[in-house]
Amino acid sequence: MTLEGKDVISVRDFDKETILHILSKAGEVDSHPVPSLLTGKIMATLFYEPSTRTRLSFESAMKRLGGGVIGFADPDTTSTAKGESLADSIRIVEGYADVIILRHPLEGAARLAGDVANIPVINAGDGANQHPTQTFLDLYTILKDKGRIDSLRIGFLGDLKYGRTVHSLATALKHFDVELCFISPSLLRMPEYVLDELHQSKIPFQEMAVLEDAISDLDVLYCTRIQKERFGSPIDHEKVRGAYRVSMHTLSFAKDDLRIMHPLPRVDELDPAVDDSIHAIYFEQAKNGIPIRQALLALVLGKL
Question: I need a surface site. Which of 68, 172, 190, 293 has the fewest CB within 10 A?
Answer without folding.
Answer: 68
